[in-house]
Amino acid sequence: MKKPRGTGSWSGTVLAAALITAATAPGQTAGLSPFTDPLIEQLEISRTDLSFSYLIGTLAGAAAPPFIGRGLDRWGARKVITVAALVFAGTLLALSFATNIAGLTVGFVFLRMAGQGALTLAATTAVVKALTTRRGLALGITAAVGSAGISLTPVLVNRLISAGGVEMAWRYQAVAVLVIILPMVLLLPRYRKTAPPRLASGESQPHPETIPGADWSSSQAVRAPIFWAIAAALAATGVLTTGLAFHQISILTTQGLTSTEAAANFIPQTITGILATLVAGALSHRVDPRFALAASMALLAAALGFLQVVNGLPTALIYGLILGAASGSIRAIEPIALSHYFGTENIGGIRGIITAINVGSTALGPILFSLGRDLTGNYSVPSLIFALLPVSVAVFALLCPAPGRKGKLMARGASR
Q1: What confidence tens digit (pLDDT) does each residue in 169-223 have?
Q2: Rounded Cα–Cα distance for residues 306 and 323 (Å)
Q3: C-alpha–C-alpha distance, residues 310 and 151, integer Å
Q4: Among residues 170, 163, 165, 334, which one has the least CA distance to residue 236?
Q5: What is the Cα–Cα distance from 295 to 318, expressed in whole angstroms?
Q6: How far apart are CA 119 and CA 376, in angstroms?
Q7: Quick one: DSSP state of residue 309?
Q8: What does pTM read for this prediction?
Q9: What is the C-alpha separation between 334 and 218, in angstroms, rounded?
Q10: What are 25-68's pLDDT values in tens digits?
């Protein structure tokens, strides 16, 4: 059969989505963490002031994903990604001129909205919509490469800041975003909502992991308990990994590491993040998504617990490996689980709501860890208390009923 004009190959779509996800690093917490101490010194503000600025910017940015998700269903990933990339690069450039916390906060709004919100959402949703076979593997590769790019960015940014200061680091990242993302847009397939599902090059059958007949609207999906289990898992990961990453240098230097060693701890997180996303993607058709969610939460709780015994490089390495596995696995599990239970016709709108919850949750992490340290004098007590959150989410996920075709029809009836 002749391939329709505008459709992309399986490998081309995955490559584009993976590199676009990696290029969101300047708007992710890991990419912003090297700026924490330099900004505190340059703007003459406290760590809690910076954390609160980040909270405001992130919460404001979290309002956009539901609208962006509906835009993806209506206009497709190409247009959304192009606009978001221009906004993202422009914000990075503007931040190089910020001289006070007000300007920094406005910058955080657009960084989180365009980077963590729009671009991440659009890239992974493009894979979900375009590919019908080996979707789990495709999402695993996308998340793995994206996680690698994001996790390696702090080391590069740290060197940029050391070599030329904060302003130069913002500007180089603005250029890098445009150079990476805009060419990748051309590899993505053109999505037409009214057209029947099309197979990308090399595909031959429908995706076996989607429940037959499941094409829920976003209003139907939010009535399902499993939707909130997925949202809670993503939110718990967002709160805790963001808080840990934002203060990583401060946390680990108080436990025997140098600032360079603390920044380099993102590398072991990258290694297991890649492995976890690939494994989660490859095994998606064999593992109940509820069990996968619970396993991811167990890893997150284990990382928080192990942080108590970190006292140098060897134990910090183990901590980084566990944390990376937790944060990496959820990136693959979330889109796979949503498409499995709710189909792909309206997946942009459904993932938009999930992404808004995720982005909003990341706003709380830095301020919670900062306040926790202020109240207790260390990071150990807050991290032990916060470990109860993923444990609770794991139990909730395991107890949730899985919706099927009958659940869909009941949801439709309730909405009439």
Answers
A1: 999 999 999 999 999 999 988 765 544 444 444 443 444 444 544 578 888 899 9
A2: 10
A3: 20
A4: 334
A5: 18
A6: 37
A7: G
A8: 0.73
A9: 15
A10: 998 877 888 898 899 999 998 888 888 898 888 888 888 888 88
